[in-house]
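User: quick one, sequence for these tokens?
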């Protein structure tokens, strides 16, 4: 049986929840769809974190987000991009929320200003392409605590 988009998304959320619990966080996944986050977590010092989880089951560094993904902005908010890697263990890219939003908005502006194949400017839409380039975020769960120490 092949997993559908909902199965893949749910798997990503539960993999992330398990990783956070394994690291000592208390994790909550809402029973219904919430616009601003997929997971909330609290560390042992009562600091709260929110996470947007994006999951795919293919290899590659290209992710497609929608414009609505840029509604939240706090110091303890993160995107976690989960690559399920088919039958292998998942890879996680833990990236501060504000960095992702900044990067996708800059790239989208550049895309809008670049002529397409027909020589005309691209038309705006709700899709945003995000390319993960930095290996510093791959499986770097420590970024959650590093950021807290730097605040």
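Assistant:
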């Amino acid at each position: 049986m092949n997993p559908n988009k909902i199965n893949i998304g749910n798997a990503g959320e539960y993999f992330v929840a398990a990783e956070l619990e394994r690291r000592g966080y208390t994790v909550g996944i809402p029973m219904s769809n919430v616009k601003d986050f997929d997971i909330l977590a609290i560390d042992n010092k009562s600091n709260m974190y929110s996470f947007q989880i994006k999951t795919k089951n293919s290899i590659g560094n290209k992710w497609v987000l929608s414009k609505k993904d840029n509604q939240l902005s706090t110091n303890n908010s993160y995107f976690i991009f989960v690559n399920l890697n088919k039958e292998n263990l998942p890879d996680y890219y833990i990236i501060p929320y504000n960095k992702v939003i900044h990067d996708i908005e800059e790239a989208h502006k550049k895309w809008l200003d670049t002529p397409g194949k027909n020589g005309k400017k691209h038309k705006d839409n709700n899709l945003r392409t995000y390319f993960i380039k930095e290996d510093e975020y791959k499986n770097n769960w420590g970024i959650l605590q590093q950021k807290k120490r730097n605040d």
